[in-house]
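Hey, I'm writing a tutorial for new members on how sequence and structure tokens pair up, and I'd like a real worked example in the thread rather than a made-up one. If someone can provide the structure for the chain below, I'll link this post from the tutorial.
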Amino acid sequence: MAGIFGVALRGLGMLGRGKKVSKTITSVKPNVPKTKLEKAKSKLAIAKQKTKASGAKLKQTIFEIGQKSKGKD
């Protein structure tokens, strides 16, 4: 009996083997700043990210030095 139900569900597409749910992304349009204002905004965003990264590195280094001084190598 279970074989009949399996065939029925497969026929209705309930099991859905091999079907894609969404479209595949094939390409992404590049964001190229054209005006001076857009270029300045882009450079500012990059500078913010670099500052954020260097701050995180500094905090990690301070933490590691603190752990070594406590003897928790």
